[in-house]
Amino acid sequence: MYLEADTVIYNNDLQTVTAQGQVRIKYGGSRLVAERVDYNQATGRIVASGNVQIVDRQGTRIFADEIDVTEDFGDGFINALSVETTDDTYFAAESAERRGGRVTVFNQGVYTACEPCEDRPDKAPIWRVKSRKIIWNGEEKVVRFEGARFEFFGLPIAYLPYFEMADPTVQRKSGFLRPAIGYSKYLGASVSIPYFFAFSPTYDLTVTGTYYGKQGFLAEAEWRQRFNNGAYSVTIAGISQKDPSEFPSSYVDTTVEQRGMIGTSGAFTINPRWSFGWDVMVQSDSRFSATYGIVGYDAYERTNEIYLTGLNDRNYFDLRLQKFSVQDRNFRGTQLDSLQPWVLPSLDYSKTVDEPVAGGELSFDLNTAIVHRSDRDYSSGVPALRGIEGTTGRITLESEWKRSFITGGGLLLTPLLSVRGDAIGVDASDSTISAINHMTGKLGGSRYSYDGSTYGTVASDIRSSYYRGMATAGLEARWPVMFSTTSASHVLEPIGQLFIRPDAPYGDTLGIPNEDAQSLVFDAASLFERDKFSGYDLIEGGTRANLGIRYVGSFGNGWNMSGIFGQSYHIAGTNPYASPNFVNAGAFSGLESDVSDFVGYVDLDTPVGLKFFAGGRFDEETFETRRAEVGATTEIGTTKLSATYAFIQEQPLYGFDRDREEVRLSASNKLDENWRVFGGGAYDLYSNTLATSSIGLEYEDECFSYALTFKRKEGTTTKEVDYNVAFRISLRTLGEIGTSTEEVSTQLGIE
Length: 751
Known about the structure:
Number of strands: 51
Shape: elongated
Radius of gyration: 35 Å
Number of helices: 2
């Protein structure tokens, strides 16, 4: 023991030591400070008084008027004390008793995780728990409250005769987690009670029981385990529904009683180059996880997959087995999930040669995909075959070489050579073949038209295998010109590209399935792409030129602006975007005519917190707007505002027979250091429908947070209205309570 004081008196007869004036004692990693300390060497007890402060081995600070403890601070009595832990939690009591160095009993105690007010230390914190007795077991890491009363801002709101919580310094401990409540029109009122088993620092289990007033008891369990190189989890859930008839007839839920799921996900690093993982779910029906909000598995669209990925310098490898799923109700009598395919497997490999080849960069890309679907995804109204019934496989190998030259005048020239080969196998069902023939007749047999103009012929070419190749010779020219003034700098960069190719094989017939190139957006971002299709199943052929200009400007006082504007030209051969395919991907894309629509984009960043952007596609003759998006964000003081307007003109052959037009607004205002109000919405201008809207209020400080959100959704066609209310109350160290899936949903449907 180390003792320091202004005055130390030794009484050898009584075996006592009395220290007075700025007393400091260190023993076994603990420290004591007081105005007076009496130490009895015979009994081993220390009595300290006058502004006593103890700091134990863990860093917990104890303040008191007087204490009587053993020399190892293991046992003793304390009067008028307060305790401050290393986790910034606070205890106070009229008196306390410490037993065996592991249990502290606070009499008439108070507990809070809110820091005392510096200006008014006697002011009641935001929340606190007053208890007749608080028992803190440092060995078992448990704090037990007996006769507890919860107070908010000094006002009592609840009383519990007994409850326990984990030691504030504990990160993982077995016990009940925060309960959750909710309500749903089809499930009824619900209460969820989870229990956490902390078996070890590397694995644990959470079991949850939820009772739904209309459907009964749902059981869930989640196992998690962590390793040095990764982690995985397994989730299971099940219910025997009391009254499936509560669900609308369009939902699969009305047909089943015994429902359940099992899901697992994981990610592991094999070495610095290789990793693998999975995310897989199997359920009794296509809507179970979405209906009951199984965390991690309730997304409307999800991908079940197993993957292996490698990345090393300029080489990339990715192998995936996938099953796509949609958790949706019946759509026009068809369950959408049954139309989703298996991918067994897909492979992407990319390699860029480290050393220059002929002074340029040489790269190789390999892509393979085997797709199987049990039911065809076919629409006969607007003829579209989004997926065949049967199996299709494709292997694509592509190589590209390019080299850049800079001329004396600053012109940047990049010649490009590319070759590609595809081998495709198709095993289509009879119903798929019938659908292809029906599409051929629906499109007129010998005519594929758009806006009254004929762009090619339509014929079916159904085979079990296809082989196609494509060679491209290209040249890109860029001439960046920079000029500046005393307060600004500007860069103008004219850009031109020319790609010479033969026509795409099978480009004017229907037969090759299209799984990965069904979306096509022609805008400023894709203007200078060599192949503007989104995937490998469609291939671009013919000779095409892309022309545009890019601008970047930096002005004084923090103003910045950038933009791009241009057009694409089909020069020779068959235009692939005017050629037929199973989903009419090129129709109304802006590329289906020899002279494309204009595309442009501009953004502006100001020093006053205002950011503005605008982009669009405009008719090549009339400059009519085909597609547009305009938006702005600003931050004024504590207020943040965001507004976006989006417009897409009708695309009948692509499945959209009307214009799509929407305005989105969002706002957030920080009322003070702790309070924030926020809201937003989206308005569909075509149907005059407020599709989504929300408003919320949030409070947050170091020990307490609260959030309340109100949301409203309305179907643009069904006019079905869905109201959602979500709330959350969180008390640091005690846990939180709120809605079970972040929403309390009450559907007010217009049948």
